[in-house]
Amino acid sequence: MKFSVTIPAYKAKFLKECIESVLAQTYKDFELIIVNDASPEDLTSIVKLFDDPRIRYYINETNCGALNVVDNWNKCLSYATGDYIICMGDDDKLLPNCLEEYAKLIEKYPGLGVYHAMTGIIDEDSNLIRMQETRPEREGVYSMLLGRILYRRIQYIGDFLFDRNLLKDNGGFYKLPIAWGSDDISSYIAAKNTGIANMQVIGFLYRDNLQTITNSSNVVYKLKAMMQEETWYKEFLSHEPSKEDIIEYMYWRMSSMNISKFIIRRKLSTIVNDLVNKGFGRAYYYWKNRKEYLINTKLIAYALIETMKRKQITKSKC
């Protein structure tokens, strides 16, 4: 089998380290596709440091930008020729065993639309600061979804390996503003019919830093994305699955019962982070626009309380 490892690139800071991690794979049958999103930084000089025929480098004529970053993910997909595709950030890393472990997983569970690598979270100096929870080696889409809803599984687009043809048939990576929720929904669509297989060892490293879209993007875009995300979830869960697999059926029921709480929790966390950064006066903005973002006064009150708690904790540490 052949893998397409893709990097929709914009930032230069960690790109060299990212490329090195891909080229260090113990499994050698892959292509590395780098798509420069018309970056103002000199990415070309970094790519030219590597003389490897597996690298294919493209430069966008116009910038997709953070708001439409999924467009660049899908450009990467359009250039890919492998059987399976990874889309990773320009600051993330693969461990040397990643593709080899994926190959083993595919051999054990062939014919799935998506596979998942256990992920370690690293800081700006590549120190491991935490890691994902262990997941069942094999699970259905509703088990996967419920784990995200109830147990707050953390995951990123680079965690997943997609069947390239299936992903293209599904319309590519699912587009939401600033890709907020696009990783989740893309994986659920791919897992809908055949489920997912999860790696039991770490294969992917996600870099948590202030430059990531998650940490730097406008909160308004996040809230708008969550509204679209909620609409998708409700449509997806409105279709009752067969009761033949009683366990998956139970997962579907529990997911349906808890999806609204999941979205509310995400909105609350997003608003609290904004209030911490911009001050309590920002709460008036949310009250004024509560209908637009489908939030209520109670949620804003909770956000104010949580913000006060967080500020008190920070103050006590100082």
UniProtKB/TrEMBL annotation:
<feature type="domain" description="Glycosyltransferase 2-like">
    <location>
        <begin position="4"/>
        <end position="141"/>
    </location>
</feature>
<dbReference type="InterPro" id="IPR029044">
    <property type="entry name" value="Nucleotide-diphossugar_trans"/>
</dbReference>
<protein>
    <submittedName>
        <fullName>Glycosyltransferase</fullName>
    </submittedName>
</protein>
<dbReference type="InterPro" id="IPR001173">
    <property type="entry name" value="Glyco_trans_2-like"/>
</dbReference>
<dbReference type="Pfam" id="PF00535">
    <property type="entry name" value="Glycos_transf_2"/>
</dbReference>
